[in-house]
Amino acid sequence: MIRKLHLSLLLSLFLVPFAMAQVGTLTGTVTDSRTGEEIPGVNLFIPDLERGAVTDLDGEYTISSIPVGEYTIRVTFIGYITQNIDVDISSGTNTQDIELRQDLIGLDEVVVTGQQIERQARSVAYSISTVTGEEVSRARETNFVDALAGKIPGVEIQGQGGNIGASSRITIRGISSLSGSNQPLFVVDGVPISNSNIVAGTSQDRLTGAVDVGNRGGDINSDDIESVTVLKGAAAAALYGQRAKDGVILITTKRGSQQVGQTVTVNSSIRTSSPLRMPDFQNEYAQGSNGKYDANSLNGWGPRIAGQQVENIRGEEITLQAYPDNVRDFYESDLTAINSISFSNADEVSDLRVGITRTDQSGIVPNNTLDRTSITVNTGRNMTEALTVRFSGTYTNLNSVGRAVAGGNDPNVLTSLINTLPRTTDIVGELSNYKEEDGTQRALSTFDNNPYWIVNENPFKNSIQRVYGNAQIRFAPVDWLAITARGGLDYYTEDRERRNAIGTLGRDDGDFSLDLITEEQINLDVLAEVNRDISEDFSFQGVVGYNLNTREQSILRNTASNLDVPGLLNFANASTNSPSNNFSQQRLIGVFGDLTVGYRNYLFLNLTGRNDWSSTLPKENRSFFYPSINTSFVFTEAFDLAGDVLSYGKLRVNYAQVGSDEAPYQLDFRYFPVSDIFGQYGTGADFPFGGRTGFSATGTLPPLDLRPQNQKSFEVGAEVQFYDGRYGIDFTYYDVRTEDQILSIPTPLTTGFGALRTNIGEVSNKGFEVSLNLNPIRTRTFNYVSTVNFTQNRNTVESLAPGVDEIVIASAFNGLQVRAEPGQSLGLYGPGFLRDEESGLPIINPDTGLRRTGGEERLGTIDPDFRLSFNNQFSYRGVNFSFLIDYRQGGVLFSQTVGALRRAGVAEETLAGRGATFIDEGVIPNPDGEGYIPNNVPVQGMQQFWNQYASASMHEGNTFSATHVKLREVKIDYELPVRWLENMPLSSVVIGFEGRNLFLLYSEVPHIDPETGLFGSASNGQGIEWNVLPSVRSFGTNIQVRF
Fold first, then answer.
1. How far apart are CA 356 and CA 268, in angstroms?
2. Number of domains forming the structure of the chain
3. Tens of pLDDT along 707-720?
4. Does one domain contain both 235 and 302?
5. Both 660 and 625 in a single domain?
6. 317-352: per-residue pLDDT in tens?
7. Is the pLDDT score of 17 beyond 60?
8. Are strands 155-159 and 210-211 parallel, antiparallel or unpaired?
9. How far apart are alpha carbons 954 and 894 in whole angstroms?
10. Nearest Cα residue to 866 out of 795, 969, 810
11. b/e map of 746-767 (b: 16 or more CB within 10 Å)?
């Protein structure tokens, strides 16, 4: 035994030098094939060994300890064509210099279009925009939709205030449907998912107290995203069917990457947020009326604050003094921590990525928290050379407490904070102890709640469990044919709890409601793809497929009121219970085809067609077909025009149609249970009656011959690049017309019904999209890239039904409406000031000096005139810096919040004229003759002036131009040099700092962020704001480590 051991040791010692001689080192320099400049940051990877390297600042790389043999090196870098280079490694040092050729705007790039069909970018004849997953992830937004703001022409994104987990509204090329949400279809890895936004309560709760629980598209974790592609036009989205009429957001999730082999990535960030903008308050006058102090009048119309002794509403003697930051002191610093870890691995036949992300967030309102955990798996395997299987799935768990109410309901903290809080109230010192000794509320007044009572005693809670994913089998028996079957599931449940504790002013007896919401969506696709060259000049790509989509939604709710025992949320504790149940189900079946013929790789003709059968339409109109035809022409290649100046040029034109169906259960009368009915002359009745339950029909007549809504789209565009792609422009003009809108129109009262569901009218959207891409500075160590996006959309209601002059899209306070009228864009309508037709000046009442009230008028359009964004990126020796400026011109916003500030006399502008004579600008009737003369009548007092000017029923005074400029985003990060990590088990380390929604550089809306809205992401009632939490600015730091 000892002898064998000695022999083994001798053999090992003999083989060591031999073994050491059987490895080699590969070194070299990577340069640009045209300029000869070295390229830092190039990724080189040997798949057989799962090893690689990244070039340093001098473009040099070294891969050590490579066993002797033949290998293929994959060389990749953004903006350059990927190369696979064969090398023969011998012992010692081997040198392999590499030249990379620029991929001019992705001439050979493959883009993912409808139904996950891959096509060459040059063959695509419609506008497609893509944002990389890295750009989305580094923004560190909890709702990834917000990270897209300002980065895609034709896309408008609007947040809904500073609530954590709030929804984000995204519209593409304007509002096309007067009754739909106009939200695009969200598709993850080829499968549609829900982006619903169900408000907590009835539709009227949007005005009186809605809770924004977020849009379900925001559940997608940004660290799992590989790319986000936006399909804008009908031609781009036609293959996804009628649900894609408003565009498609294609999310491709990350897979196991062969470029880096087996990796573990840890990403950790922490961010703090605070209100972006607070109202500008006056701090000179206390509460009261006409200069006299009144402790129970919560406003700023009392005496000047001069340290005088007064009594508060509890009879306590206090000294009047101003607390300039009392509203700001109520808000807390939002703290958000996002931590994720992912494992990624791949070989020649399989890949796997598993990611876990945890988000913990506290809001700017006390007692407001949110946590979200996401687990994602994405894996695939080549079972044989012809058969591939893939699976991706995500589980999300979300819990939140204390989301704030928006709107005018008195349990809203904003009602107490902004509308009524006197400037003399020390909110933290006086009100944070919100209970009296007997446990009752320490209220602001006899009619205003303490905001601390609201956030502690009336917290809104919700919990979401969600699973979505898909499984796919792809069979390719030959290299030109592939058959794919893909099934997807999206299922979530949500529990909601909303309460008003006993003792809440306005809800003195207490109430609570419990909701259980369930949504399920099942999607099945079967596709056959053919891709081959017909001849030397002609190529052909064709896809035919079948789609089945079913959706179900259930909402169970019970509202319990008049509680007996405080704090006991049990239905038996309530004297009144009001249960409700809402269930819907719909199915869509479609068959589709996509055929592309190419000529010499520069001229392409594409035809698509889809036929859908919808369960929500009448049998005779259930089937509807919509086609598209489009062509692209790479003229620089056709006429050999590419040179030192002109690098690339493509023209594209397309025409497409997309149909869409109706909401479920609109084809017949719907009935709901009632407890009593009213009849004339004492003929009413209570139910149950004779042991039978009573039911009543809805007030809308069902349609007689409902047709699918039809959208027709024409688009023409051009893409031109100069100087090897360093300068480029992408231009698009579109004309989209949506006919046979499905709406409810008013009917004569003699019919016994209030409305009729039918097809009416046409809405058009015409516009321009321009994207300028500039790379004016590009050296070996410094790079500057600028992107300018311009969007202009003109929305017009072309026609409605005969005899119908208007359609109300949304209504709010005292006649304020968002309305559709023929010949106009969607606009805001409400009472305005009476004006002199000749001068345009307001007419003043000569008896009071106040403006006279006129009739209803158009206050303005809710759409901007145009949008412009300016995105700049700088990189220098591993340091990357970028900033984004976003500019909106035009449109209007009505703010009831601003009106309330002014009526209460707490806004800074209400100081002007106090204690002095104030004469409003305008005209009065000429007492000596006809016409008008300049006003010379003073107002009785500024309290009277602002009560009338900013009245809740005088909407012109509270309507403003929505023009504004924002510093949307600032990011800076530094990637540690590779040589610093040579002795560590790390492949990369990136440290970053980011800021979001940083500064409102210019705004014509006073006191609030002009991007906030009341009606949520699923409503067309935009341009209206009321008691929405202030939006927030955030600063954060992030570190990403890859092992």
1. 12
2. 5
3. 999 999 999 999 99
4. no
5. yes
6. 999 999 999 999 999 988 999 999 999 888 878 889
7. no
8. unpaired
9. 11
10. 795
11. ebeeeeebeebbbbbbbbbbbb
Question: Which of 397, 428, 454 is the C-terminal boundary of a domain?
Answer: 454
Please compute Rg for the chain using Cα positions. 33
Residues 923 and 1004 in one domain: no
pLDDT attached to residue 446 = 85
Beta-strand (E) ranges in 255-315? 263-275, 288-289, 292-293, 309-311
- Based on the fold, state whether residues 844 and 782 are members of the same structural domain: no
1038 found inside a domain:
yes
Q: Are residues 856 and 883 in the same domain?
A: no
Backbone φ and ψ for 911, nearest 5 degrees, come out as: -70, -35
The mean pLDDT of the chain is 87
Confidence check: pLDDT of 370 > 50: yes
* Residue 107 in domain: no
Q: Domain end: 915, 939, 961, which one?
A: 961
Same domain, residue pair 850 and 868: no
Tell me the three state secondary structure of residue 256: coil
Q: Please tell me the distance from the alpha carbon of residue 448 to that of residue 434, in angstroms, as a whole number.
A: 13
8-14: long-range contacts, CB 8 A cutoff, minimum separation 24? none
Structure tokens at 729: 């422009």
Q: How far apart are CA 354 and CA 1038, in angstroms?
A: 21
Q: Which helix (H) or strand (E) holds 6?
A: helix 2-20
**Could you give the CA distance from residue 595 to residue 110 in angstroms, rounded to a whole number?**
17
Q: Alpha-carbon distance 1015 to 207, whole Å? A: 8
Domain of residue 689: give its range. Answer: 668-701
CA-CA distance, 691 to 663, in Å (whole number)?
34
Largest CA distance in the chain: 133
Rounded Cα distance, 884 and 149, in Å: 9
Does the pLDDT at position 105 exceed 90? no
Q: What was the pLDDT predicted at 458? A: 92
Please name which of 373, 428, 430, 427 lies closest in space to residue 400, comparing C-alpha atoms: 373
Q: What is the pLDDT of residues 395-440, one digit of tens each?
A: 999 999 998 887 765 577 777 777 678 999 999 988 999 999 999 9
At 780-804, the pLDDT tens digits run: 789 999 999 999 999 999 999 888 8
Cα(201)–Cα(368) distance, rounded to whole angstroms? 20
Q: Which residue has the tokens 């936006």?
A: 230
DSSP state of 152: S
Letter for the amino acid at 871?
N
Q: How far apart are CA 763 and CA 182, in angstroms?
A: 13
Nearest to 150 by CA among 139, 160, 142: 139
The token pair at 23 is: 């490895």
Residues 523 and 617 in one domain: yes
Chain-centroid distance, C-alpha 659: 24
Is the residue at 313 inside a domain?
Answer: yes
- List Cα–Cα distances, 42 to 679, 826, 1007, in angstroms: 82, 51, 49
- Nearest Cα neighbor of 181 from 164, 165, 194 is 194
Residue type, 611: N
Please tell me the distance from the alpha carbon of residue 300 to that of residue 286, in angstroms, as a whole number. 5
Neighbours of 97 (CB within 10 A): 11
The answer to whether 213 and 462 have CB atoms below 8 angstroms apart is yes
Residue (of 918, 916, 914) closest to 937 by Cα position: 918
- If you ran DSSP here, which 8-state letter would residue 224 be given? G
- Closest of 125, 118, 160 to residue 143, by C-alpha: 160
Burial (CB count within 10 angstroms: exposed 0-12, middle 13-18, buried 19+), residue 382: middle
Residue in 958, 813, 1028, 901 with CA at minimum distance from that of residue 209: 1028
Would you state the structure tokens that stand for residue 447, as one six-digit string?
Answer: 């009619």
Angstrom distance (rounded) from CA 760 to CA 744: 9
3-state secondary structure of 415: helix
Under the banding of pLDDT at 50, 70 and 90, the label for residue 117 is: confident
According to DSSP, residue 977 is labeled P
How far, in Å, CA of 622 to CA of 588, rounded?
10
